[in-house]
Specification:
The chain has 389 residues and is α/β, with parallel strands linked by helices. It contains ten helices and 16 strands. Helix 1 packs across helix 10 and helix 8 packs across helix 10.
């Protein structure tokens, strides 16, 4: 079955919802107006149960099928925007200074709302569908908070599925893979304590700038000389702050950065080697180095059976030639990973066509993708919850 006729018919109305959400972006857990809009739509559609405040500001709508008892599957969208100044010039551009939907979460919400409306109208399945709207994907760990708040147990969710748009992938195409599909995202802060002094007398100092410069180079060898070339690790130093004057060697320097990995062993290795490199340089130069290593989102890991099922549904919607089931993992992070740690499921990419990249102030979600996303969600739910023969 290709695109659902009902999904095509709904496209313009769903696009209007998307544009409304785009005009009113909110950040992190502070998505009160967004959550209210979502809850009102779910109520309007006739969802059997609507629960707010899960994971602080998350929303869940429950739609019960008309074909008997059965399992419950979860379909998830993120809700939060980014702290960016929009430059699209669109009529529906952000009306809130310094905030915009630059990652397409407005489109994700709209597609899932469209699917919720269809499923509430038809109820052609057994069991129940949990429509999940999650706050704080952009760094706040809203997925973790919803899981900690009992999301899976409260609604007896047995499987969970997520979707994200990707610029550069044509509208109507999907991409997915088994196993790691997005990276674990860690962060580190490094403080170098030296001995300050006059820049004309460096021999009387322990220069933290020189130590920091050596450390930046040493950290790069963790990947280039310490890691199997076939093992994906990204280590980037993104901050280096030291000193305030031309003629003073400072007392302190501060570095920070990020590490992205696809395997638990690689994650452990990177943390261990960063600390070893810092300790070695501190000893060599006579300074003191402290490393704060923070584990953030885990790997987004697609489960085998559920990935095969999601791929089958995507091919039903798009056709065999428009679904890449061996997509290369992305080294960006995604806190749907916490939900996939709690329950089996799969995360899929949907094409946004030719557009600015994610997290870019010129980005905009492509409304032409809406019927493709709705059709995927509906057919996934109806097939996952088809009554036993």
């Amino acid at each position: 079955m290709p695109l659902l006729n009902r999904a095509i018919d709904m496209q313009e109305e769903v696009a209007q919802w998307r544009r409304h959400l785009h005009q009113h972006p909110e950040l992190m857990f502070d998505v009160h107006q967004t959550a209210q809009f979502v809850a009102e739509k779910l109520r309007e559609f006739g969802c059997d149960e609507i629960v707010t405040g899960i994971g602080r500001t998350g929303v869940v709508g429950i739609i019960r099928g008309a074909r008997g008892e059965g399992a419950t599957i979860g379909l998830r969208s993120d809700m939060d925007a980014l702290p960016l100044v929009e430059i699209t010039g669109k009529p529906w551009a952000s009306r809130t200074a310094g905030k915009m939907h630059a990652c397409g979460h407005d489109g994700h919400m709209a597609m899932l709302l469209g699917a919720a409306r269809y499923l509430a109208e038809t109820r052609n399945f057994s069991g129940s569908v949990a429509i999940i709207f999650q706050p704080a994907e952009e760094g706040g760990g809203g997925g973790r908070e919803m899981v900690k708040d009992g999301l899976m147990e409260r609604f007896a969710i047995s499987e969970v599925y997520g979707m994200h748009n990707i610029p550069g992938l044509a509208v109507g195409e999907f991409a997915i893979c088994k196993g790691p599909i997005m990276a674990a995202t860690d962060e580190f802060n490094i403080t170098i304590d030296g001995k300050g002094g006059h820049a004309a007398q460096p021999h009387t100092t322990i220069d933290p700038v020189v130590i920091g410069a050596q450390l930046v180079g040493a950290l790069q060898t963790i990947v280039s000389r310490g890691t199997d070339p076939l093992d994906s690790i990204v280590l980037s130093v993104t901050k280096f702050h030291a000193g305030d004057a031309h003629n003073i060697i400072p007392e302190k320097a501060e570095l920070a950065g990020t590490v992205r990995t696809l395997r638990a062993e690689s994650r452990d290795f990177a943390e261990r080697r960063i600390k070893q490199a810092a300790e070695g340089l501190a000893s060599a130069f006579g300074g003191r180095i402290e490393v704060e290593y923070m584990r953030n989102y885990p790997v987004t890991f697609n489960h085998g059976r559920e990935t095969e099922f999601a791929t089958k549904i995507a091919r039903t919607v798009a056709g065999d030639g428009l679904v890449d089931d061996e997509a290369a993992p992305m080294m960006a992070g995604e806190d749907f990973s916490y939900m996939l740690e709690a329950r089996p499921g799969a995360f899929i990419f949907i094409g946004n066509g030719v557009s600015a990249s994610l997290h870019n102030p010129a980005y905009d979600f492509n409304d032409e993708a809406i019927p493709h996303g709705i059709s995927y969600w509906v057919q996934l739910a109806e097939n996952a919850l088809a009554p036993a023969a």
